[in-house]
Amino acid sequence: MMTRKNLTNILRIVKGKEKRKKRKDKADRKRNRIQSDEEDYDPDQERKKRRKGGYQDDEEEEDDDDISDYEEGGAESTRGNKRSAPPPPLPKKTYTQKRIERKLMPQTEKLSAEELMETAVYQRFNRVVEKIFDNTEDLDLTAEIEEDGDVPQEYLIPKYELTDLCSESAKLKSLGAMAIVPPERLVRLLNILEKNIRDGTRVTPIVDEDDDDDDKLWMELVMERILRAMDASLTAMNIMTSQNMSKRVYLEDVIERCVQFTKFQLSNTVYPSFDPVYRVDSKKADGFVGSMKRKRAHCKDVRNRSILGLYNKLHEVVGLLADLLNIQTLTDTTVLQLSTLGVGPFFVENVSELQLSALRLVTKVFSKYNKHRRLLLDDILASIARLPNSKRSLRTYRLNSDENIQMLTALVLQLIQCVVELPEQLAQAAGVKSASEGDSQNSKDSKEAKVVEEKKELSMDRDVLVCNRYETAMSTAYSFLSVFLQKTGSKSEEIDYRPLFENFVQDLLATVNKPEWPASELLLSLLGKLLVQKFSNKNSDMALRVSSLDCLGVVAAKLRRDAVSSQSQLESIKAIIQEVKEEENRGAPMLEDGSPPTENGTANATNTPSSKKSKKKKSGSDKFKENERPSDEEEERTMFLQRVLLDWLAVNSGSESALLHARHFFIGQWYREAFSEIMRQKQGPLPQPSARKSGSHNKKKRKRKADESEEETTEESEDEEGGKKVGQVDEALVAEVTQLAEKRKLFLLTKIPAFPPASPGAKTQTLQTHIDYENAELITRYLASKRPFSQSFDMYLKQILRVLTESAIAVRTKAMKCLTMVVEADPGVLSRNDMQLGVHHSFLDHSTSVREAAVDLVGKFVLSRPEVLNTYYEMISARILDTGVSVRKRVIKILKDICLECPDFIKIPEICVKMIRRINDEEGIKKLVQEVFQNMWFTPVRERPHLDEESLLRKVNNITEVVVACRDTGLDWFEQLLHSMFKPREDKDDVTKVNTEPPKSLVTACKQIVDCLVRHILVLEEDGQGSQPADEPRTTTQRILACHKTLYLFAKIRPQLLVDHAITLQPYLAWRCRTQVDYTMIGVVARTLELVVPLMEHPSETFLSQLEEDAVKLILQHDRTVITSCLALLGSIVNTVTKNYRLIKDCFNRYHSFIVDYKRLNEDNPNNSKLETLKPLFRRALYTIGLLLKNFDLKDEKVRCGLSDDITEQVVETLLYFMDSPDMNLRYYTLQALGFVCIRHYELMMGNRLKQLYHMLLLEPSVSSQLRIQTLQNIETYLQEEEVRMIKQDQECAGMCSGWMCCCSSLSTKSNTAGIGPRFSSPRPACAIPGVYVHRFRGSHCSFCRQAASGY
Asked: What range does the record give for the signal peptide (predicted)?
């Protein structure tokens, strides 16, 4: 045997001789061709041939340059092989054909055999063949050649001759003239071609990149052998797939050799070139090393012209092998090789054209060879791990829409659909002539074999035959799904199959309810049952259970989405029916006998109006017309739409032969479920139809006992269709449904042939459709909505809800996400009682992830269904206190959306209160709350061209309602919210951080709110004054109070906002008080003016004097709440604006003199009755004098206005005197006044007498709890005031110059080192005394706490 080295050494010598011989033969051939054309040319004869349509231009020749390129570097194929890169995405399929015709009369040949033999194509083919025979005349073609041996050179046809032969054979095949070539010549030629195919069967041009020149020369020689074998294979396939060929040309050896060659070159040349996964690394010991994904990520485009030419010819051969399967029955060995050959390309990247050809091949094998179906499925399932996974190669099969699916999905769907292949002779049983009569596409022998097989099938009962075919498809689908799904949960698999399975399910959802993919619905229906079994089985792997549940959620969401879209479907369907009827009546001409046309242009069977819905040939419908069949509108509509859809599929099957399988699948499906579907329309539950039908099902069950999976599928289907017993159902209804089902079955049998029955004397059969693809898809969806799968949503939803009580957290979480997908498809599902119970249970789940998923589910879609908002509000709002941070965040976002999208919802104030209370939550939630209210309240309202008063008033009402709702719990939360928005600190621990000016948008929004609040107060006041009912003013007053409280909150944070409204607010100090609400309102107004008036520029004297007058009156007349607020207001006005200390002196003297007199009276006679009478006034005087000393510094000479210098000490001495009083109530008010005094005069806190007093009050067991509490309150109030002052002082120091800051820092460092003392140098150096004070009283405080704990 010659080695590669020896061949390389003689290569240069051999190639030189071959080139010289080639040039000579080309010249001779060209000269002979010119001479032959000149002799044969006859202009009249040529024109005659052209008119007959039997002449084709045969001047398409490959010139010398093309052949030279082919020899030098592997030129592209002459049949259009111009590919220079990996295949682009396949074009979108379009089904635009509207009408097809077929001749019924014997078709006349375009040219006679003699005329065909005179054509230049035939003569050139004959000359090439003759030359090949001359060169091999002395050879024994029957001589055996060892399988591994080299083919002798004398058997090999020169490359240029084989190229000509391939081209001419293709032209001869297109002319339909291959059959006139004598069979013995073709047999001899095929034997020679077999030797040439063998020569290139076991060689591959793939070499390492770093090989030397000898290897490259070797590759050229190998490529020449491969291309020779390629052309020989194409020529052999062209011959055997031509029309009307003799059985003698189907040589098994040649077919097998072509299959071997194609399989070897694909596996060893094409796949490694286009997909790196199949490339063997010679430097690695095991070859396939590394990740498939990583290898494919670095895939480069194929640029080798020889490889590209070989690829294009190989996928052409694969397509011809698919055609050969239609013509000739092959041996099992060849079919096995074809199966492997056809399955391989689906798991290779960048070979989409080859995959389309392989799709046809595998479908033909699957439909024709039943015994090989299981092997094919096993081969597909075993190879799924090698599926392309890159984005550009994942989904390469283009649907009619703008969607793509995987080639594997298209393969599986077509394999299932091709199983339901119904013999056209079934239509004869219904009285219709077979449409395949006169068809001469296949060979006579093949037709005879097919007829014998169909006769054997027709001997069976027609119900058994049709149902058996469809149930075989069900069994095939079940087997594939069960194995594929099992792989996703198998721990022994190295590859994760879950993404692959999810991609497959997504493809099924993309193709479901599309007219060309009816098997998608079957697969999804079976898949739903399998998924329920998997995730309900607690013994299954957790990953499998979770993935199964996820897939079921996707399927359920798709079902719900289709159900929602189909609600408006009926009107569109009616419009389509009306349009089709009008088109049929308009476009169909009258027949020769004057009878009206049928729906497809043929003779009408009856003259009744309903005949358009179910036309039958007259001679075959006698039995159908004997008895009146029951009918109704829905049944007539269904049959009409079925007929229209089947006609559309038949018309467009010319561009897509797989549509014929889809037609038969639809027919089998509708036939099998005719009774159950009609019964569901009539009643709902399904009874057993009849004894005859039940018996036929029993027969089918007995025949399928061996196949367990198929039996299981059938039983499930029967359980699904089964309902009440016959005895429980009205017998008349059963009889009516049975008759309607028989009517539909007879109709469906007549639609098995693609063409309708022809009328007598007609010369053509015409089939046309009046719908486009969109209408066909709509009809498919409408018909599918009547089937069990479209009505299985309730069952799937119940199964998902059932696992919410599972112990596995992953399953419960995934179940909630599945419910989210379902609700996304139709938010109306939230209204279901079972859904509400399931969600409520998940809200209380102990897993944070489950609770978060439940909250997310409701929050996304509750706004689109306001009617369910009340149902779910309590559930959602309760979760704002959830222990999970993520849950609280999600709840806050949902509540915010409710406030924005449903402004009329009555619970909005409560929602805002709940959110505001989270202002002190962890930092992330605090920031979220700020963002929420920033968007809701503190975003400016549109002002141009006009202010949006309605939105602004709604916002203001919400704010005031929140304030009202907080009246019991306090407004601290709201105040903290405003403070955090106006005065944020980047570092909350750094009190010296200088607060920047708030954003202008925030200030503008607050200004709008404040202005609107003031206007709203005035409006409410006018409405309250004009109202007659007694309770109306009280309600109005409460609203006004809420507005004033809101203004006070804004004044505490940004008093500048109310400067313009101070004059408007002043009259409310004179508000007539009738209830406690009125007193509260006066206090709030006074507090507001206290903050605002000092900021006014040049306020009028009248305004200020009126304020002072009102404040003094209120102090003298009203209770403690008003006194506190008015004294604070008076202190603010006098200390900062008017400096009217004489007024303060008069007020002070009045109360101080009373206290002194009371003291003297008590000293003279403690039992004096006047003391008890004057005690209320005395308590008022104590309270007022304490507040006066708190708000005014009487140690300042300007403030005293002539009072004695030690007036403060006198007051303190008087107060300490009353602390020894036996009256506990009197002591309590005196202690309260002492606390007020010490707030301003801090040095008193460090005095011995006050310290001893506080120690005694906190430590003596005999002291009442009321006094102890007030003592602690005094200390607390003092510390709070001191803290506020220290913060202000620190901020003032931080704003000074850098030198002063350094000095302050130095002082702070020293004081911190000492542990006590001032933090900064200031006019009040004792500002750190509170720290010392707390240190001294800490022991007393702890002792008091221990006593309180033990005593109470």
From this structure: none
